[in-house]
Each structure stands twice: as C-alpha cells, then as structure tokens.
Structure to design on (317 residues):
C-alpha cells in the first residue's frame, strides 16, 4: 500500500486515493463545468471534458523519474506492482471519487448544471494521471470492463512494458486510444531525461515503438518539448515516429507546474509559436503526415495522416 507521507502529499493536491489507485479532477473538467473552455482532447477527438475521469490504477509505481514530470517523482516507490486492486472496484471507486470531488461545484453559481449532472457518469477514462498504468497486472480486464460499460479509454504509456501491449492485443483489450510518450530523439538524451531504473530502457522503448504499427487501435505519439533540452534533431524524432506508424502525433509544450518547477524553471517552457515551428520541422521528414489542428492555450499541435479520422466514432469504443 502507499506510504502515509505519500498519501498526505496527494490528498493536499486534491487526489482521491483508494488502494493503489487515484482520481484527480482535471483543470479542464473544472473549466468546462464553468463554461470557460475545454481540453484539446475535446477539440481534436470529441471527448467531452466534463465527462472525462482522470485516473491511475497504480499510483507512484513507475520505471522512470522523468525530469519534466510534474508529479512528485521523488516519491516513486518501485517498478513492480504486486497488489491487485480489482478492475470492477477501480471503476466503481473512480466514479464515486469523481462525484465526490465534483460535489462542491453544485453550489457554485457559475456551474453549468446540465454539464454537472452529465459529469456524474463519466464516459471516458484517461488512464494517465500518475504512475505507469501498464504496470497494473489486470489492465486488460479493466479496459474490457470499461468497454462493456460504453466508456472510452485513453491509455498513456512510457513504452517500458511491451509485453503488456502484446497481452492487451491478445486479449482484445486495446484501449480506444493508445499513447506512447516520445521525449528524446536519441539514447543519450533519453537516459538523461527519463532516469530509468531499467538499464536497457532505450532498447525496450524502441521495441514498443515497433510494436505500435501492428496494434489495431487508434495510436498517438505524445511529445513533450522542453526549451534548451529536447527541441533538437527533428530528423531523428521522425525516424522513431516512422517505426511506430501511428495515426496522430501530439507535439506539446512543457509546462513548469507542480514538482517540475524544482527541476526545470519557467524559462524552459516553449511558446506555442515555438511548438508550431518545431512541428513544421518534423513534417519535413514525415511525408505521410500533415498539420491537422492546434490549441494555443494548451500549447499543443496535432499532426496526423487523415483529418477525417480525428473524431472518435461509437464503433471505436
């Protein structure tokens, strides 16, 4: 179980903790409830921000201690999760926690009450909050149960459990949308940025890159760019992306928030125009891809093969 001091830190940050799982209300969920905007996932893919549940089935279990991570990586426990919270309990507790965390919005005069009522039953699980979700032993069962309940799943992985990706495909349990984080164009920078506990992390990561092209689901490369660190070698990023043959590429600017402020200051945050410029450099080496969309407030650009595939259809759940 989580150590008491870790739980204390998380609860101060408004996490709801249950077992080795957690939920935190995304700021875009809050903004959407107040009619103040919505997440780029809504703009790009059609995911309603106020009906999205941001959660993790394995809090503070990860193989990496990434420099740019806004979480308290200093508290990372280990890279194996033995305790098996049951998928049904995780889903039920996540929704219950989401409702409790949103309860205060009911009495706020700026809340859109129609959205608030809809938010009580989230229809998307963003499995990416904190920790590496592919370390959760029953991930396949969790995704299958979400699918059975007509809930879409967005899974973000660091790519260091390729065997889990193989298992998800074998069990027909791939998420609605699968993300792989790509933050370095070469081995040396990868090791500097990710500080992985695994000695052969770069090799394992590349195995996952190669696996992606074979997986029958929506696939996205997510890039978090930090000024004066990894905004280099677009040609080498492109070589890695070509291995994966993903549908979309999210090029996103690093934001110095949370614990990342202690490691990388505000001056390391690229502007949206810098993100767009780097995206254009990438496209020169990626003839299959084109500029599809952007959201300036989130400092994110979407590249992809086909704009018509952006919005998620009901058949893809």
């Amino acid at each position: 179980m989580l150590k008491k001091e870790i739980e204390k830190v998380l609860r101060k940050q408004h996490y709801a903790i249950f077992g080795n799982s957690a939920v935190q209300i995304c700021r875009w969920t809050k903004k959407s409830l107040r009619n103040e905007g919505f997440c780029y996932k809504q703009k790009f893919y059609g995911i309603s921000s106020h009906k999205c549940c941001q959660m993790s089935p394995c809090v503070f279990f990860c193989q990496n201690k990434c420099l740019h991570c806004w979480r308290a990586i200093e508290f990372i426990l280990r890279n194996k999760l033995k305790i098996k919270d049951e998928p049904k309990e995780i889903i039920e507790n996540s929704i219950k926690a989401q409702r409790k965390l949103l309860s205060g919005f009911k009495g706020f005069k700026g809340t859109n009450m129609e959205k608030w009522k809809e938010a009580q039953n989230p229809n998307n699980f963003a499995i990416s909050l904190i920790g590496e979700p592919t370390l959760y032993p029953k991930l396949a069962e969790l995704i299958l149960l979400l699918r059975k309940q007509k809930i879409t799943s967005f899974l973000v992985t660091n790519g260091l459990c390729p065997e889990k990706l193989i298992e998800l495909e074998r069990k027909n349990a791939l998420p609605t949308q699968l993300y792989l984080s790509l933050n370095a164009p070469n081995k040396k920078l990868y090791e500097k940025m990710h500080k992985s506990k695994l000695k052969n992390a770069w090799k394992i990561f590349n195995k996952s890159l190669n696996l992606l092209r074979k997986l029958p689901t929506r696939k996205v490369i997510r890039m978090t760019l930090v000024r004066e660190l990894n905004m280099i070698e677009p040609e080498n990023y492109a070589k890695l992306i070509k291995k994966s043959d993903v549908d979309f590429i999210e090029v996103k600017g690093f934001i110095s928030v949370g614990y990342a402020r202690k490691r990388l200051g505000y001056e390391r945050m690229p502007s949206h125009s810098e993100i767009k410029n780097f995206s254009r450099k990438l496209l020169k080496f990626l003839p299959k891809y084109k500029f599809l969309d952007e959201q300036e407030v989130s400092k994110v650009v979407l590249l992809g093969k086909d704009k018509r595939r952006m919005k998620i259809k009901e058949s893809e759940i």
About this structure: The radius of gyration is 19 Å. The longest helix spans residues 87-102. The chain has a mean pLDDT of 91. The longest strand covers residues 218-225.
